[in-house]
Design brief:
By secondary structure, the chain is mostly beta strands. The protein contains no helices and 15 strands. It comes from Chelydra serpentina.
């Protein structure tokens, strides 16, 4: 049987802000293949997804990050070149977060997913950090794995 567990490593990074933008994601999500998977990216209090924008990237082992989707408004959004239509972004204004939605998740969707948010107060992109050993990445790392059991 196949399952799609999603694992997130959390941290925070922001520069030059008195009120720092904090981006958070759930620790894990698990869905069987073929189901819809939602990977969320939430903003801290004082920031609104109505004023900010998001970019999602996908990275597979040994490959450079690949642009998946950007969302600012319903009329200013789109997916990257070669990204299947099953990838979309759905804003959730009541919870102040964006969902990267993968409809009918497939094995090829296994990857790390990075959420970058536009900080309208600082006019800069900010995100979480993932620390592996001494290496620090300025990104929100979410690993989506589809495993055979």
């Amino acid at each position: 049987m196949l399952w799609a567990p999603v694992i997130v490593f959390l941290g925070v990074w922001c520069t030059g802000a008195s009120s720092q933008l904090v981006v958070t994601q759930p620790l894990s999500v698990a869905e069987p293949p073929g189901r819809t998977v939602k990977l969320s990216c939430a903003l801290s209090s004082g920031y609104s997804i109505d004023n900010d924008r998001v970019r999602w990237y996908q990275q597979k082992p040994g490959s450079a990050p690949r642009f998946v989707y950007h969302y600012y408004t319903s009329s200013d959004q789109g997916r990257g070149t070669g990204i299947p239509e099953r990838f979309t972004v759905s804003p959730d204004t009541s919870n102040n977060l964006w969902n990267l939605v993968i409809s009918g998740a497939q094995a090829e969707d296994e990857a790390d997913y990075y959420c970058y948010t536009w900080d309208s107060k600082q006019s800069a992109y900010h995100s979480e950090t993932s620390t592996r050993g001494t290496e620090m990445k300025t990104s929100s790392l979410l690993h989506c794995a589809l495993l055979q059991q």
